[in-house]
Amino acid sequence: MDKIKDFQELTLNEKSIDLLSKAITEYAFRSGPIEDMHANNQCKLT
Question: Quick one: three-class SS letters along the chain?
């Protein structure tokens, strides 16, 4: 259980959460599935 608690302390803090959220957003919108959908004109949102 100590390894889990150590991991949580390292990752679930204000700075880490901020960096993780930015990284996920960057992946999704810049080089991930959402960008692929737009690049291939498969966007059926409108």
Answer: CHHHHHHHHHHCCHHHHHHHHHHHHHHHHHCCHHHHHHHCCCCCCC
